[in-house]
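Quick board copy: two proteins, each given as sequence then tokens.
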Amino acid sequence: MSTNQNKRELLRQKRKAQQRRKIYLTALIIIGVLVIFSLFALLPKLISKPANYGSGQGFALGDPGAPVKVVAFSSYYCSHCKSFSESLEKEFVKNYIEKGKVYYRYVNMASNNEQSKNAAEASYCAADQNKFFEYKSLLYIYASATTAFPRKT
């Protein structure tokens, strides 16, 4: 081989190496950005302490002998009920139920809507497994969908 061919081959190899470095660097930057955005999205969830639903028995939380009994009549299609469940209930559980001040019981108020009845029926299955309060938040989220809770046979 001539010296010009060797030089051309070396230049090709250098260009390929540079292209690989650019690809690796671009991929590394993209992965870094994704990790940073993921941390910002997940950090509040990791830091916040979830409500303690461990004392739940079916549709109830807390000590049945507590001095105050609270019964919440609620529907999965009620915006006020959803708002309480998403924003206030965790603090209520933390400040009153966990401290033994309140016994809290949830009562399903299914409307004549077939989907509402299906959601209430599904919540009974979750309550049988003492997972109602965890499941209830999902019911509120999906209740806003137009085809929420269809009956599957």
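And the next:
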Amino acid sequence: MARLAAHGLELDLPQGWDGRIMRRETAPVEVRAAPPGGVAPPPPAVAHAATFSLPRELGDFGGGAVELMRRDDLFVSLVEFDRDSLGTTLFVRNGLPGRLRPGDFDPQALQRTLPGQAGTQVFFTAADRPFCLYVVLGSFVRRAGMVPVVNGLLSGVQIT
């Protein structure tokens, strides 16, 4: 198991998984300029983890990767949103979901619908940071056996 840690995110990658944590630019520097006498907030972070090799070019929600998935593959994305999202209705849930269920997954919940795949997304706030957890399963039919593997990965995620 490998431990990834950067930008206030930590996760344990199971053997054979690929992953990365990075910052992403979502707004021009002048928009995020520091308030008078203050410090500009850092760009939001994003973490990706998958049971297959992640491509070099990868969208926040798996664009460029989910198209490569086989039916046994899993893709997990943890996408931080700008701080101005804090306190909004979308991010009212407190904390990373501890346990997903097979019923949480739906082929229509994907950012991009691909044959056989299913996904879920959960918006939440943790450590005063707004996030979306986005998970894609390579097979909707096999979700009952795949979701416990995702839950194992989520049990090793820490947000500070």
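Board note added afterward: Residues 27-32 have pLDDT under 50 and may be disordered.
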